[in-house]
Amino acid sequence: RAAAAQDARSPDRLRSPIVCILGHVDTGKTKILDKIRKTNVQDGEAGGITQQIGATFFPLDAVKRETSKLALGRALEHNIPALLIIDTPGHESFTNLRSRGSSLCDIAILVVDIMHGLEPQTMESIELLKQRKTPFIVALNKVDRLYDWKAKPMTPVIEALPAQKRHVQDEFKRRLAETKVAFAELGFNSEVYWENDDVRGQVSLVPTSAISGEGIPDLLYLLVSLTQNLMRDRLMWTTHVECTVLEVKMIEGLGTTIDVILTGGTLKEGDTIVVCGLDGAIVTTVRALLTPHPMKEMRVKGQFLRHGSIEAAQGIKISADGLDRAVAGTQLLITEDGGSEEELDLLRDEVMKDFATILTAVDKS
Ligand code: GDP
Question: Residue of the nearest CA to atom 17 in ligand 1?
Fold first, then answer.
């Protein structure tokens, strides 16, 4: 199967990178995600940004519109279709997004409060990122808290910063220098992104304000340019299904469903899937592939759109029988040659291998 998967990979087609957000509590992770989601709404355009299951789908066109404010943004090519940004910030969702011990997250945003520097959970986040070998960029958030900062809403920070008074720039430089020393003590060279000429060897720092939006265009630009330039191999679209269970959820009218992130291949209604269960592997048939109805609140009933098939990378809700005891944070496999007993046994064994390493139990909420 591995050989077949190799054959099916194509350098001409990349999938959307998966972006996670980590960092100490109260650094502004949720606010940054909100700001990213509202980016184009504020510009008065629909922008095609859609809420998915567990993630926000941010099409490259929308990124380009935002980053065209940056001279740099003009260099962006249409290589990846979108950014898929995971909606739940923090350690747990990052830990759940994995497959065979490595992370499904392609790149992370590590949020640091510029007024506080590196804090205990920043260290924990860095440890996790190191373990999973996940590249990351740093949002140096809350620049608007620098004394006397003059807000320049949704402006690239490379313009907003030089427009500040001398003493504001001086305070920024001082705090930046402190942050760089703190990162150096952890073994990371770091540099503000516009001065970073070694993106593989040095962590890029992006000053941001999640309140007024300075630096948000820069953050989007950097996510796109780094993923499409440095991760082509990893992001090659493959016909081989790669899928991770993010959450197990009871939904009125649907029963127990699983929310998954599909990072490779295509899922279809009627597929036979194999997932890890508390009492052993679950073999079941996809009854429906669902995504939120655009324009509708997630809470509203009958809110889901049904799809005959969905291609990676996407966040999807799967409705199927027998999912009550499914386990989050494990991979989902599909039968590829008709579901013979031999094949099913192999798949059962494979999904249950994940079980031993699971930290997160079933979310029955
Ligand atoms: P999280 O715990 O990392 O998700 O942090 P939140 O996004 O919930 O933000 C924590 C607090 O910091 C909230 O009161 C936010 O309004 C505030 N906050 C977040 N980002 C910024 C920012 O860029 N500037 C300022 N001044 N406050 C912020």
Answer: 28
